[in-house]
Amino acid sequence: MLGLQTYGSSSEGESDNEQRGREKEEPAHLKPLDTKHSLSKSLAIVAAPEVVPIGAAAVPRTLDPTLKEVTYNPKFDEMYAPVKGPEHPNMTMQQRAPRNTLAGYVEKAHINAFEFENQRRTFHTYGYALDPTVDETADGQSFVGDLQSAYDDNGKTVFEPPKAKKMRKQEKNDNPEDVEGFLGPWGKFENELSIARPNEQERAELDELLSKRHKRGRIPEDKPLEEKSTLHIKDAYDYQGRSYLHAPHDLGVNLRSNAPPPKCFLPKAHIHTWTGHNKGISSVRWFPRTAHLLLSGSMDCRVKLWEVYGDRRCIRTFSGHRQAIKDIAWNNRGTQFLSASYDRYIKLWDAETGDVISRFTTRKMPFCVKFHPDNSKQHLFVAGTSDKKIICWDTRSGDIVQEYDRHLGSVSTITFVDDNRRFVTTSDDKSMRIWEWDIPVDMKYIADPTMHSMPAVTLAPNGKWMACQSLDNKIVIFSALNRFKMNRKKTFTGHMVSGYACQLDFSPDMSYLVSGDGDGKCYIWDWKTTKLYKKWQAHDGVCISTLWHPHEASKLVTAGWDGQIKYWD
């Protein structure tokens, strides 16, 4: 307080006497109020008085949109003011309208829940319901929807029991003593006909309908195609009367040996091309055991037999199918072979005379065909068809002797394993099934979410492994012994086969694995390390099949969709 008193003095050099005099004379605002002049006892002071602001008429009043009753007369702007904040400039009238559901504003209606459900179900069942309009003109008896049905049914709802139907009179005889005439609950109705026979008009309509169905479901039978074969060489028999099926001895290679070459090598050069097919090759097969002949099936509906040694001529052409050849298979002796075609026929040919011995069909497309490898069962062969079945035929009688029907897609390959006691099939259902011979229930089913369809399978020369061409551009290896387990350490990659059933093969000493691909290239991998050793452009189109010669160390055959068969060494 002393500091405030001295604050604002003009001269600092005043005397102490003057300062003492000022201490005695204090300012009026620092002195206590005199109780005589105080107004606090006579007046009440209001801290927040009601003050009318300037331009009070411009301040709008807000209306709660949930109010049902307003105690004053609001203006138009107050009633239609936005609920929160300023009005959105781009909203439509429909968007501005108040809503309590996604579709709009729903007012509460006082209606019984059962009555509402009753009318809703009646409308969905019969097509009509009571008119829900509530006004002075509504009488509660009018309907909406199908008015004719409402008047016919007298406004019946779904919860009202239907009218009892008139029961037909039934003959009765409940007397158990009447042994011959006792009817019980099995008596006939009055005027009941025991045999329903169509009249002449109904019979004509039925015959017409059945004939149409029969024509629609029947595959039109073509006229029998001329089955012929053409011999292209003059010296079909040698000086001893032996045909071209007899393997020559003067080649420097023992074709009758069961032992593979001691060591195989990679082929380096293209040494021959067999030409004669007009369209792509679909399958090639060595002559059994000796491999001195080569059989090829093509999309030009013909099968050709070629020489592998000597002049490498085309020996014979077999013609007898209407559509492309899908698969071919020799018997063990090489005297006969099967051809499976897209014309739904499997034909058994005599390889020496060129005659057709038998024809087999189930009116389904055969996709693979194979003789039973046992010498005692050479009269049996199996075929995988488009209707998911594996069918076994007897060539002596022409009858089907067994059907294996467990796959969920068309059967792609059949491979005999385990000394021919079992066989393995793959299918378009991306699974593999193992069967005991002549038992139509699969003994093992292999399917994995990571597996793809495997349209080509080859058994290794030692019989322990199966190489499967998988359509995810891989070759996967399965054990061909007891467990049939996939060998995940051996996977061969690098080629492109998705969409093509490229046949693959092993070298005779199991050093290499060879396969074609969709771009026409031929690939050779090392069997032990799965390393890609060699690849080269073999064909212009798809290289659909590769075969390593079983008695030659470095010779293999490739066949492509360009119609050519090439020999490499």
UniProtKB/TrEMBL annotation:
Residues 17-35 have a biased composition (Basic and acidic residues). WD repeats lie at residues 274-308, 318-359, 404-436, 504-535, 536-569. Residues 1-35, 146-183 are annotated as: Disordered. GO terms for biological process: mRNA splicing, via spliceosome. It is found in: Nucleus. InterPro entries: PRPF17, WD40/YVTN_repeat-like_dom_sf, WD40_PAC1, WD40_repeat_CS, WD40_repeat_dom_sf, WD40_rpt. One of its GO terms (cellular component) is catalytic step 2 spliceosome. The keyword tRNA processing does not apply. Keywords: mRNA processing, mRNA splicing, Nucleus, Repeat, Spliceosome, WD repeat. Residues 1-12 have a biased composition (Polar residues). SUPFAM superfamilies: WD40 repeat-like (SSF50978). Coiled coil: none annotated. GO terms for molecular function: mRNA binding. This is Pre-mRNA-processing factor 17.
